[in-house]
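Changelog note: in this version the structure field was regenerated for every chain. One regenerated record is shown below for reference.
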Amino acid sequence: MNARDRLIVGLDIPTTAEAEKMVATLGDAVSFYKIGYQLAFAGGLEFARDLVKDGNQVFLDMKLLDIDNTVAKGVENIVKMGVTMLTLHAYPKAMRAAVAAAKGSDLCLLAVTVLTSMDEADLTDAGYEYDPHTLVLRRAEQALAAGMGGIVCSAEEASAVRKIVGTTMAVVTPGIRPAGSDVGDQKRVMTPADALRAGSSHLVVARPIVKAPDPKAAAEAILTEMQSVL
């Protein structure tokens, strides 16, 4: 894959009208988009279908977690949407249910390990006994065993995760920040080039692109940096 296949632009935008405008602004520079909660609850699921019809790839960031049957039925319908990637929290039972429901399709199921906005203190507050690095690796092992298509983790853990999951699984990393950019609420971040060197297969970039004065120029600069190490 080239850089364009590996850059996922997060459409963390309030309305589908604004999302449509952003996609038009980015033009042929970008062909892979993430739709999360904010846009999903403002007509974003239908917008995802439109993006797919127009030949784009879509990463549906729903972070599913529920009883097995509910997860499975949700995944069955998401398969019909034609999206490329779907996230769910890396709980073994949920992952196994999702894998069974997606069997035979091209949907890449991604296991969310530890959110990039969380550090050790946050995990302690949430009742976990592990530090972020240890928990990420444990969940990567469980995702591999469940037959998931990939892992979502910070770029800081990408190298260690890659050693666990091998070369075929996707390692998708949010929290990507070009050098000198504002990290915002992210706590475990890395530049695009360093993330690819660390073992990431796909980079999720939202605010550094969609909030930039010139989003297309920002995306092209990131693509150039990515391509330099591929």
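Spot check on this record: The first strand starts at residue 7 and ends at 10. The CA atoms of residues 158 and 199 lie 5 Å apart.
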